[in-house]
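Workshop exercise sheet. Pairs work together: one partner reads the sequence aloud, the other fills in the structure field after running the prediction. Swap roles for the next sheet.
Pair: D.N. / O.F.
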Amino acid sequence: MRRILLSGLLAWVMAAILGTAAEARFFSIEALEPGMRGTAKTVVRGTEIETFEVEFLGVLPQAGPSGDLLLIRVSGDVIDRTGGIAAGMSGSPVYIGDQLVGAIGYAYDFADHRIGMVTPIGDMLAVMELMDPGNRPDASSVQEARGQKPASGDGVPRAAVLAHSWAEAKELAAALPDDVRVFVPVQTPVLASGFSSRALSRLQQRLAPLSLVPLQAGGAAVAVEHVHLEPGSAVGAQLMRGDVSLTAIGTVTYIDNDRFVAFGHPFTNLGSVDFLTTGAYVHYVVQSVSIPFKIGSPTVPIGAIRQDRGAAIAGELGPLPYMVPVSVTVHDRDRGISRTLEFGVVHDDRLLVELAVAGALSALDRSLDRLGPGTSRVVFQIRGEGMPRPLVRDNMWYSASDVAAVSLLEFLEAVDLVVNNRFTPVTISRIQVVAEVEEHRWTARIEEATPSSTEVIPGESVRVTVRLRPFRGEAMTEELILTVPKDASPGPVTVVVRGGGWGEESALDEDQEDVDDSEELLGENVQDFDRLIEEFVRRERNNEVVVEFYSSRETRSEEAGNGDDEDDDGDDGMPREESEEDGVHDDRHYGWTGAYEPPERVVASVPTDYFILGSTSFELLIVPDYRTAGAEESTEEPAPDQDLGEEPSPTGVEQPAEDEPAEGPETGSQDGADDEDVFAEPEPEVGGAGEDESEPET
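Structure field:
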């Protein structure tokens, strides 16, 4: 019994000691007084941690996105060298004695860079707890301030307002009194390397809503043998890695075993995330009137960021997040050179599309080393877990001003289609792009289309001869066979002849700002993911000549007869569009026995070696099949001397055999089945452990 009591007493004493030690790590802001002094840690060159002085000016209640902020003034040799609080210092831990108070997170805009604000460690640790609510860190014992101490001292503002961006800060500063200061988060430098200038500009526009401003820094990741992370160390939050990289540089605030918090403000503020964590090497701190900033480079991957919220980012050391491997190969046929860029992209549906497209555009720009006109053939594939099959697409492109940007329009659609499909979540395992580009203009314009007959009965075919004029070349012709459905309604129809991409240069939106809903473009009747991919892959290509019309379909009852539908059909043979007042369509006008059936699209196409421009049309008259009508309505015996031989077609159109192929050059299959030589054996995956993919099944 005595032994049991002693064991229990010892356990209670040890728990009390550990609890006191845990609380002793952190300074409660309830005890904070204006004028108290402390220190902070950061890296201003290389990986060496340096210390500078901090004076606390007071507490600003509820000034931050997660609660109170602590007003400080910094000083010392480090601050003299940096010019004040610099972008990249966010997350720098601040101490009073040996107790952690919080992290530098905010600074003045275009003002005294020695004044800033600290995010309390309690708010930051609450973000760490979200990584695993069932395993709360020791810091749960930290007390949050209840009775705040008012800010005081020379030059201390009467109030503070928090802006989310520099632009917003300028507007607020102009509208507020002089004794009200506007703070912004200490910008985390988002350093970009491997991007072309206009790809980076596009990315800056897309990331602006997240308050991220990528800056071209150049240079690849710095090679180091080992990264020892501790409070005050520079740390990277990486969205892209490889030949094209995008990394935010900040500072580690606190480490609890293999967990850490950093930044003291949000990075993307996207909540639960899975970003790559790296070490960081600081090259230099640039002084600036707006705010000083660090220039650095990522080092080796060391872990993952799991939470990105108002007070901090939180992550764990060790396990690395999955990154989507992207490979872009560009063949410049004018110079006879080829180049492949490989990079990994975070697998986050909110970022993946724009990051992948920016990387691919950079690969084209860097490989071609020019902006301007040209023709391209682009083949890409997207594979992933959750996809019923790979998405492989082959198309031809032309632009009179910017062939690189135009070549990626469909790639943008495809990645968006897969990532944001409405059927099932997808983990993309590989993205590959192969582009062949040359400056020569391989275009041909449609000049004329002539049918072999202007009248045709249902079930018959008409041969359409299309005259094309290659750019600065001799005219050529392509022939297509257009077959009218057997259930087509008699009447005139307008046959449109065009290119597969509608073939006008003006239709190529090279400055596209938003991703169109690819699913909507493919129709609302797609019922599963496999069909969605098939519709995208098999849609017309820019090098095809397309002949099409829309045919009304009827199922007539015996009582209905032919009817008179003059008032209900348009000039092109399509039913007139009904208004809401029309209500349910009156089938009796048409003699239909069932529900209204939408017009059937009748189409034929042939591939060419050119990007097709222009369009034309002609009228085709669908006439009743009097042979069938006569057989049904007439019961008279033929005259004895009447010739019962084979009756010619009433339209005089020669009917081709059912298996007669359309003529014209073949440049590749519609679904990419002939493109298995385009993709080489996959290179090792970049930036994450993906599945072992074989050669694309094209």
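Discussion prompt: The domain at 190-321 is CATH 2.40.10 (Thrombin, subunit H). What would you look at next?
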